[in-house]
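Why does residue order matter? Because the sequence determines the fold. Keep that principle in mind as you read this record.
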Amino acid sequence: MQILRDGYYFFFVFLVFSSVSYFFNGYISILFLLVGVFCVLFFRDPDRKTVSDDTLVYSACDGKIMDICETSEPEFLKTKAVQISAFLSPFDVHINRAPIKGMVVKQERIGHGFAPAFLESAKDNSKNFILIKGRRADALVVQVVGLVARRIVSWVGVGDKILQGQKIGMLRFGSRTDVFVPKSKVKKILVKKGERVFAGKTVLIQLNNIRT
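Structure:
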């Protein structure tokens, strides 16, 4: 398992704080050290091998399914869609992965709020929309900030060709990731509310046999 460079950076910073505070208060020194260790664990990047299959839509994040619903998505998919939302705790791996193979055809950041990601008011939170055009269906990945997670990192841009399971970005310190797929392309939903999922490993949706 690898650790992203930011993990080592934050660990070094809190190690310095821990060393300095040791001369004033041993408990605070231990606290800084524990925060540094947490940062290393937060930025972990475990090896993931995704079995490429254009009839499947994988989870874009690690976390717990908080909602599965049918909704209208007029801005990006421009059709009725199945939305699957997963909440990431601060202890989950926070790297997002592509649910399908395809090309990034649109990316846009919208919103400005920082409400807890599991609340209804989170609809106004800052979000990063990544629209991926695939062979059988398009998929929209939405990275949503929360009360603690206030930074969205994207590693892809419009025009990039991406593989299923490829790392596309991350959320800093816990939040939510949504995956939207056109309802007309969905054959079967393979997860249920409350289930734990893993990016690039857990299959969310089986697509029908009609190619775009």
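Residues 57 and 108 are 22 Å apart (CA to CA).
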